[in-house]
Amino acid sequence: MRRRAVLTAGALAGALALTGCSGSGAAKAELSVASSYMPQPVSADMAAGFLTITNNGGTDDRLTSVSSAAAGQVTMHSTVGGAMTEESSFAIPAHGRLVFKSGGNHLMFEKLKHPPRQGQTVTVKLTFAKSGPLTVEMPVKSATYNPSTGH
Ligand code: CU
């Protein structure tokens, strides 16, 4: 019985090593950001931003604030039934994703210091309830950019 327990623990450690987990990593959020972009704004002082935050960890986290040197303020909005509502935070579930996309959740960059132009990048800092902050270089795309077609 004892021998069998030892073997099981060894197999488990091997499986964790194979998937790149560090043991302690399974007990906290592991966040990464992808698919970020800002459509070149048509307004002089306001722009939208989109991205996906993936949590490969075993614990929930929350996006609690967004900031950028390019804007006086960045707010987070949800869209429900066509109406947008400012949110103070968004949940990022364990083994889940938080998606900001056109027509849904979005970031609003307000009081822009310079109008972002296609081809530039905007540096965005994401702050979380539990994890350390992440900095994203958000590319500025055309005003009509659609991530599913790449245009
Ligand atoms: Cu909005």
Identify the overall geometry: globular
Q: Spell out the helices and strands N to C.
A: HEEEEEEEEEE
The CATH architecture comes to Sandwich
- Share of helix, binned: 10-25%
Report the span from N to C terminus. 61 Å
Quickly give the structural class.
mainly beta
Verbal overview:
- The protein is mainly beta and 151 residues long.
- The protein has one domain: Immunoglobulin-like (Sandwich).
- Helices cover 11% and strands 48% of the residues.
- The chain is built from 1 helix and 10 strands, in the order H-E-E-E-E-E-E-E-E-E-E.
- The protein has one helix at 2-18; strands at residues 31-39, 46-55, 61-67, 71-80, 83-87, 90-92, 96-100, 106-112, 121-128, 134-141.
- Strands 1, 2, 3, 4, 5, 6, 7, 8, 9 and 10 form a 10-stranded mixed sheet that branches.
- The structure holds copper (II) ion.
- Copper (II) ion (CU) binds at residues 77, 84, 106, 108.
- Copper (II) ion (CU) binds next to strand 8.
